[in-house]
Structure formats: structure tokens, C-alpha cells
Amino acid sequence: RSVYDDQPNAHQRFMEKLDACIRNHDREIEKMCNFHHQGFVDAITELLKVRADAEKLKVQVTDTNRRLQDAGKEVIAQTEEIIRCRVQQQNITTVVEKLQLCLPVLEMYSKLKEQMNVKRYYSALKTMEQLENLYLPRVSQYRFCQIMIENLPKLREEIKEISMSDLKDFLESIRKHSDRIGETAMKQAQQQKSFSTALQKQNNVNYGRNMHLSRNRVLESKNEVTLKRTFEDDDEHEEEVLTAQDLVDFSPVYRCLHIYSVLGDGEIFENYYRKQRRKQARLVLQPQSSMHETVEGYRRYFSQIVGFFVVEDHILHVTQGLVTRTYTDELWNMALSKIIAVLRTHSSYCSDPDLVLELKNLIVVFADTLQGYGFPVNRLFDLLFEIRDQYNETLLKKWSGLFRDIFEADNYSPIPVANEEEYKIVISKFPFQDPELDKQSFPKKLPMSQSVPQIYIQVKEFIYASLKFSESLHRSSTEIDDMLRKSTNLLLTRTLSSCLQNLIKKPHIGLTELVQIIINTTHLEQACKYLEDFISNITNISQVTVHTARLYGLSTFKDARHAAEGEIYTKLNQKIDEFIQIADYDWTMSESDGRASGYLMDLINFLRSTFQVFTHLPGKVAQTACMSACQHLSTSLMQMLLDNELKQISMGAIQQFNLDVIQCELFASSEPVPGFQGDTLQLAFIDLRQV
Question: Where's the Exocyst complex subunit EXOC6/Sec15 C-terminal domain (predicted)?
Fold first, then answer.
């Protein structure tokens, strides 16, 4: 640093000092060389001496090396052979190791192919999973493994397609077999209830025992046969309990569900299954247009629906999540609404009560079967009450025809009985009691005609028919009693009343028939209390119960009787008018014939014979009819005498007319109908007498 300082002569002084330093180092080098020179000369001398020995050693080493090389050629050859064998051995070991890694892969792939061939698709998927996760990663560097890896997704898709095809075949199979599955399930449900139902019928045999002994004996024998057949059927079917699994192979569903679950598409499968089953449900719920014509149509319809839901219930309990209780309940509610609508529509077309009854029985079995599988069926039993009203309407129409046929076939004359046996036959059919008649000897006549016991029997048959519908409806005896009484009231107040009213209005019904109709309605009215007892014996409900309805037959028969009485009065007056119309007075005759007119004598004889028939009528009816006839006759004669077209009249005509009036007064005074007080009946002609 001082060299470059700005001091004067600094560079010169530095160069001087540097030269001095160099001279010092040269002197030290020279001293060292002088010190080592002798040693260097000695070393060169020794080296020259060694050169000759080195030449000899080189020759010897070269010779030794040549001889050693000649001797080691064989060793080298053997060593190379050993090395080659060692390499081959190492390669073989490597190949064995690699083959040991590849063989399980090939075995598993072969197993996979075999499983595919025998359609064990779920096991095949498990094998694929093992291949992918365990075996193939170990040997993934080989080309054949890459081919396998590329083929596995294709095999999965193939399995999905095959399993889906199997599922479609399964869905088609259960669609075809649903009616058979349902029929089997309904039979089983029916068999389970058959024994208890038979016992119930056995207990119900006691109704009406005191009044209808012979009929109940027949019913007892029928129920004994029913019980016997029930035991035989139970024994016969005890070993033949078929289930849905016995009729349908569910393995495609399980297999497909497992396959899609393994593939991670379980939700897709569930949605597809439910969608297809909803479509099938809509097809099953669609009835045939002619279903209402035969009971077989209804049976097949119900069997298909039961089969459908039995399958769904089975799927619900044996699979996890494929269908849920919420799903089945939703499906059932949808189906139930459709079923009720279909039954309402088609049952309205049924005009045969037997078919309606068969439909009711099928609905009960249908409801009991599905209730056994946990489905709510209360709405079906509510529907049965609607169908019950329709059933009653069909019964009323049928019984209306029966009543008309009975009235048409009746001869409207008292029933003749020749001996005790015939008498017992009649009273076994109709509860008739008359102590006065019992005292009479045979042969004798019962006051009513043949239609009365027949009508009474048919009313009982109607009650039996109405009771058939009330069975198995899970209703109390009180409700059944109320239903029977209401339907019987409809029969009496509407059907029978209408038939009686129409009968009374028919032109061919004469006075004798009208009189007999009044007598018949009187006895039918008296028999109403026996019908109430009959219903009470069936239902075991006492008539003193507060809510027990009463039969309205009394008003029905009273109305019919009043109509018949009015018709009697009308026909009597019409008959009198017919006689009056043939009257032919000669108002200019000089003197009378000395006797009453022929038409009037015929009229009086007719009235006399007619009133004799009235002896079986209530006294008031006969008296009213007689008074009405006399008043009408008096009025008709008065109008004839005071006719405006009658311009003149002779004394002879007056005398002849007087003879006719005298005959009328004699008829009135002869008391053609007993019960009139004093000259009450003669007063009908007093105005005519004064004129």
C-alpha cells in the first residue's frame, strides 16, 4: 500500500528492497543445491547398477506370465461355463418367481371365466374385485395383464346386462303368476278362517228354533256337513302349504340386487325395480271391461292384486332396502283407491244378488288376506257397506218379482185343509193361531189364501239372504240386527207395499179378491211380531234393547188395507152404475108392471151375495161398504128421476119407480150387513122416498 502512497521516492525504495530480497533467496537456493548434489550423484550411480538386473527380471516375468497364461486357459474356459450356468440358473429362478406371481392371476381369471359360463355372476364380481385389488397390481407390467384389466369393465357391463335381462324375465314371470300366487294366498287365508266360521254358523243354527224346527234341522245337518268338510279340507291341505317362494323363483332379484350393490349401482337398481313394479301395479289394477258379468272375473282381478302385494311383501322382508314399508304403503294406498273406484263402477252393473253376494265374499277374503300381510283394509269394509245397500236393492228387485209371481198365482180363496197333517204343514209355514177354528172338525178352511204363507216364507228368505251379506263383515250383533231390520223394513214398506198397491189397482181384481186381500193383509200384519222375534233369534239381540229398530209392516199392511177398502167402495159403485145403465124406464107407461124392475132385482141380489162375502171383513169395513153402496144407489136413482132430459112422466111410471124404491128399502131393512143401529141404513133412501 505504501508503494502507491503519494510519498516521494516510494517506488524506488520498494524496488531496491525487492532486489535485495531476491539476492538473499538466490544465495539460499545455491546453498541447498550444493548440499544435495552429492546425494543426487550417488542415486544416479545406483540406478545404473540396477538397470541390468531389471532387464533380467523383466525377461523372467515375461516368461513366467507366458507359462501362467498357457496354464490358465482351461481354467478360464471352465470359469466362463460356470458363469453361464450361474446366469441361466438365475434366469430360471427369476422366471419361476414371475410365474408364481402370474399363475394365481391366470387361475383367478380362469375361475372368472368359468363363473361367467355357469352364470355365477355375483361370485364372478367378487373374483374381479380380488383380481383388481390383490393379484393384478403385482404383475401389472405384463401385456396380458393389461388385456385383462381392459376386459374387466366389459365383463362387468356384460354381467349387468345379463342380470338385468334375468330381472326382466323375473318381472314377466311374476306378472304371469301373480293370479296363481294370489289365489293360493287367498285360499290359505280362507282355510284359516273356515273352522271358526263353521263354528259360528253352528252357533247361529239356533235362531228361530222354536218357530221353525224343521228348517233348523236342515240347517243343522248342513252345518255338520260344513264342519266335516272343513276338517277334511284342513287335513288335506295341512301338508300343502304353498308360499310365494314355492311358485316363483326369486333368485334373479337377489342376484341382481347383489350385483348392482357390488357395482355401486344399488340405487339405480332400486329405482328401476320400483318403476317397473309401479307399471305392473297399474296394469294389474286395470280391470277387464266384462269383469262384472261373472264371479270369475272378480276372482281373477283380486287374485292378481293379492299376488302382486304378496310378492312385494316377500321382497320387503327378504331384501334390505330394495323396497321399504313406506314404499309398499304408498303403493297400497294408490292401489286401494283404484280398487275401490273399480268396484264401485263394476258392482253398479250387477243386477244379480247372488253375484253381488259372491263379490262381497271375495272382497272379504281379499281384505282378510291382505290384512294378514299387514296392509290396512278398513276402506274395503267401508266399501262393503256401500255394496250392501246395492245388494239390498238387487234383493228388493228380485223379491218384487217373487211377490208379483205369488200374487199372480194366488186363487184368492181360503186355504182348505182336509186333515191334521195338512193343517200342521200350513202352520209350520205361517204362524196362524185361531182357537175357534181349532175347535172345528176337519175338513175346514183357513181364512187367508195361499199367498199369505208364501209371502211370509219369502220375507224370511229375504232376511236369510240379507244376513248372508252381513256375515264376515266384522260387525257386532247389534249392528247386524239393525241392518237386518232396516232391510226388512225396506222390503215391507217399499217392495211389498208397492206390489200390493199395484195388485189392488189391477182391473181383473174383483170384489171377492179385494175382500181376500184385506183378510190376507190382516194376517200378515199380525205376523210382523213373529218376524221381529225371528230376527232377534238370529242375532241374539233382545227386542227390549233401546236401539233396536221396529218393523214398519203394520203401517204397510194398513195402507194396503185402506187402499183395498177404497177400491171395494169404488168397484161396488161401478157395478151399481153398470146395473143402472141397463135400466129402461117407460116414463109414459099407463100403469106399472106390478113388480119391481128386473135390473133392480138383479142389482139387489148381487149386493146381497156380495155382502155375504164381507162376513170375514172387519165389521166397520163391511158396514161402510154397505152404506156407501146404498147411498150411491139412492143418488143414482135420484139423478135418473130428476134428469133434465126427462120432460114428462106418467103416474104409471111413478108407481113403477115406487116399486123399485120399495125393494131398495126392503133390502136396507133386511140388514144385509150386521151391526147397523135401528133404521140407519134405510135413511140412505129417505130423500129418494120424499121425492
Answer: 380-691
